[in-house]
Amino acid sequence: MECRAKPGLLLRANAALRMLAPGSHRGIHFAPRPASSEDEEQDRPPPSRCWFRAAYARLLRHAVSLNGVDHAGGLPRHAATGSPVACPHAAARAAHFDALAAEFVSAAAAASRGHPPPRMRATSLSSLTRVCDVLGVSAQQRKSVRLTVCPQVTQHHVWRGALEAVLGDLQADMAASLDDPSPATQMAEQIASACSRFLSDTADAATSSTPSWMRPTPFKKPAEPPPAARKWQEVLDMFADLARSLETAGRLDGHAQKVAAMKEGLYQIRDIVVERDVAFKEARRQDCLVQRKLSRSLGHSSRCLYTLLLFYLYGTVRDIEVHVGKCVSGKGGRDVTVHAAKFLTGGDELAVRSGIKQLSHALGIFQFVWEAANTECDAANDNGKDAVVKKKNEDTKGVLELQGHLWGIGVEEKTMTYRGDVFQVHQIRLP
Prior knowledge:
Elements: H1 7-17, H2 38-43, H3 49-66, E1 69-70, E2 77-78, H4 90-113, E3 121-125, H5 128-135, H6 139-153, H7 156-176, H8 183-201, H9 232-246, H10 253-268, H11 280-297, H12 303-314, E4 320-329, E5 335-344, H13 349-373, E6 375-382, E7 385-392, E8 400-408, E9 414-418, E10 421-427
Parallel strand pairs: 5-8, 8-10
Antiparallel strand pairs: 1-2, 3-4, 4-5, 6-7, 9-10
Helix pairs in contact: 3-4, 5-13, 6-12, 6-13, 7-8, 7-10, 7-12, 8-9, 9-10, 10-12
């Protein structure tokens, strides 16, 4: 996609909007400001008709120039196809469109209802801590979340698959970039390719479609001594070099964060053998060692643990970018209603379905963590082996209501059902 908007046009648009601030005579200004309380939100004067017209005009201009671009970490990508967009200003413009669209939708809802709805804040669901902050999960419940999540997502095939997904996403974005790669980026590409080959070579035997450890070891052992066992330390060294190479690649910041996250887990299991060409019993022992070390070492705030959870649930490692608002009700504020929203710059069907899929992932994460937080987990020790006893905590469990809303320019307003959840598609229009 071409970068159509000219800097001069954007500067003139910014200057015009600064003359039309909501509730004053100076206009919209998006400089960072301290977070306001709910009472301050209620007391804010409604925006003027001129503000709505100016903001809507700017949204239309951004929608035309972006043409369905979504920025969800790493390179800006097309919302429909998922391919990277070769425009250096697209990321900043997409973020500005999201901020203005959230402000516009909230103001329009307040104008029609007479009171502002829950404020929607841009949130990057990049760790379990972020998710728990949205849901209001207590410190004690977060321990239950970790004890519930770790045994499921630290399995060997999930761990290896997440590593390969991180490398695959990085390689795809570097290959699709139209810019002349810097020496650091070229080095990162070579390291990522070497690491992918290493994981592929040690996953399955080349002579069979089944893993070599599923076949019995030969009765007669070869005369020559076996090669030295390869350990996860080799992968850790490659990821450390990859992280250093990505430090100077600004457009690959999202991938650099994922590499750093997986490096945390690699450091914990660096002494475990990575070879798969071994007998079944030894392979099972290695799998159990990987799972046990990761379960014990990855804390609740670990981005590595959250990346494994994303891969476990959806087969992807990309963080989810959404706008989130929350309402609490019921006795003790135990009942929580979460509004998750995405804003599209295009109204084509592929972009709508992509937005619905991202919203579904976000709601699924909220539901999963909510259920884990309301499960009592007692760690037991039986003959030196860790076990987790789970009991539903029905007495303190509240009610979680999840709502998904998709807003876009020129979209058809409708209700869609995806994986059992109902999503509302709205058109951004003047109130």
